[in-house]
Amino acid sequence: MRVCEATRERIRELCAERKMTEYMLIYNAGMPPSTVKSIISGRSKNPGILNIKRITEGLGVSLREFYDSDMFEDLEQED
């Protein structure tokens, strides 16, 4: 799994745990809908740490909690 795929899956996982829709996340994070949707859909290959930070705030978790997942253990080398 690549970093962008793991990031996307982790966002989906945390949304599901919190029973949060994509639109609730967009509202809570205070981000443009197109930015969040491109990250979740996989169109964005490099979402940037600032966007991830805003998403984690919208989810109510820290960056440390976000990346504290087995999904980020054995990532493929990026091109």
TrEMBL record:
**SUPFAM superfamilies per the record?**
lambda repressor-like DNA-binding domains
Which Gene Ontology molecular function entries are recorded, alphabetically? DNA binding
Q: Which Gene3D superfamilies match?
A: lambda repressor-like DNA-binding domains
Matching entries from InterPro entries are given as: Cro/C1-type_HTH (IPR001387), Lambda_DNA-bd_dom_sf (IPR010982)
What residue stretches are annotated with the HTH cro/C1-type domain? Answer: 11-66
Say which domain of life the source belongs to.
Answer: Bacteria
Write the protein's name: Helix-turn-helix transcriptional regulator
Name its species.
Candidatus Lachnoclostridium stercorigallinarum
